[in-house]
Amino acid sequence: MPKITAARVIVTSPGRNFVTLKIETTDGVHGVGDATLNGRELAVASYLTDHVVPMLIGRDAHAIEDIWQYLYKGAYWRRGPVTMAAIAAVDTALWDIKAKIAGLPLYQLLGGASRTGVMVYGHANGATIEETLENAAVYAENGYKAIRLQSGVPGLKSVYGVSKDRFVYEPADGDLPTESLWSTEKYLRSVAPLFEAARDRLGWDVHLLHDVHHRLTPIEAGRLGKDLEPYRPFWMEDAVPAENQASFRIIRQHTTTPLAVGEVFNSIWDCKQLIEEQLIDYIRTTIVHAGGVTHLRKIASFADLHHVRTGCHGATDLSPVCMAAALHFDLSIPNFGIQEYMRHTEATDEVFPHAYSFHDGMLHPGEVVGLGVDIDEAEAAKYPYKRAYLPIARREDGSMHDW
Ligand code: KDG
Ligand code: MG
Fold it and tell me: Is the Cβ–Cβ distance between 363 and 339 less than 8 Å?
């Protein structure tokens, strides 16, 4: 039985901050887990180093479920992004270790491949509709079967999802939160014309997605969903802030546009009602923020009973370790829907050498044992932590809005 001998947190910032947990065992095998929480990285690093690591030493590395329960129930203070990212990192590293010892890529331990690859969506954005569609056309030419469209809003200086760089988007942009101006009215007028132009330019064979990023009320979201129906979007994401799960009943009453939500959820309890009442179509929880492979499988199984498919979050603030784990999960489960894929910078890929690869609009985790991803500690050491925050949004009268 392999015992945990050491666990260390590595913080590195090759263009953006990442927190990684590395667990070592008596078998000489190590595993890695992503613990990155954008804008709150050091809180998770401390939770792990100061509170979790001392509880791990000497434990059976194979006892993944028991360790998960030990960290969840044993803390008394349950759930929340910091706790669940820390548990996720431990869980992911332990699955990596188990799969390495078994001599198999992780997806084989999760039941084997249910599909040949994992359909991903890329991000096309631009200051104008024209620019967004230029970029979307590049994605289509590169084989993407699904593309997210975000465009600048006339009258607003900056909006979520529109980057300065054409293909790399990094929202954590200040050493204190930067402020942007928000107008729901201006935004609502801008989305349907984008989708209308997109269908003209890109045709109907490509899936189109859109992220509202928690900006609307339920009835506004119902309106937007209805406006988009003629263009058959794959999904409308995070239409409203989702603490109040019953809000989605109102959206559902008004539109047949498929709904996706959940990148900020941390546990099955955050989406229980949404899934149970079939108020959503895609659940976006992912490995690092929702308790690791173990807990995500529980969410996916529950979702499968209710016709809900997965659409894991995959922005750049989720490290390649999270992406690798998500791909093994995506490949294995029956109710996979789609996987978000924002490419990391070259420096990030050098810090985290990985076996996953992109081909014909799909990602595959590769056939390397374990997760097929590691951290190059010498490379990581070149990039010290840099404080960075996500922006905030204020309405035109100065009051705070959801970002
Ligand atoms: O850290 C926040 C980002 O991950 C988030 O803003 C990205 O909404 C996002 C998405 O759908 O990728
Ligand atoms: Mg999102």
Answer: yes
